[in-house]
Amino acid sequence: MVQRIDDFFNPLKYVQGVDTPFRTSSSTEMVGAMMGQRAVIQSLATYKQWKVDNNLTGNKYYNISFYRDRFAKAHPSSAFILNQVVNGTK
Questions:
Q1: Of 26, 14, 29, 75, nearest to 50 (Cα)?
Q2: pLDDT digit string (tens) for 39-68?
Q3: Hey, where are the domains in the chain?
Q4: Which of 39, 41, 74 is nearest to 56 (CA)?
Q5: 8 A C-beta contact, residue 43 and residue 80
Q6: What is the DSSP string of 49-86?
């Protein structure tokens, strides 16, 4: 998913299905939304890989809240983004 967003911003690539009907222009709002999506998706991928690397995939706890402190020590920026998604911005 992250690669598709990156490809969308590459003017030399056409990414089918990203925007229908196909747009020939972009807006600041669209770019901001796509960059936000990229940050969240990349943070989720980082979290999932961290769980695999730490042999935590078989654990019954799949919620970021359970591993928040341990994950934040290893990946503070990704943890910050996921905390905003889980807790909402206040």
A1: 75
A2: 999 999 999 899 889 888 776 666 677 788
A3: 27-87
A4: 74
A5: no
A6: HHHHHTT-TTSS---HHHHHHHHHHH-HHHHHHHHHHH
9 token code pair: 């911003």
Q: What whole-number distance in Å separates Cα of residue 74 and Cα of residue 84?
A: 17
Cut 0.70: pTM above it: no
Q: How far is the C-alpha of 43 from the C-alpha of 75, rounded, in Å? A: 9
Contacts of 86 (CB under 8 A, 6+ apart): 64, 65
3-class secondary-structure state, position 13: coil
Q: What are the structure tokens assigned to 5, written together?
A: 């967003």
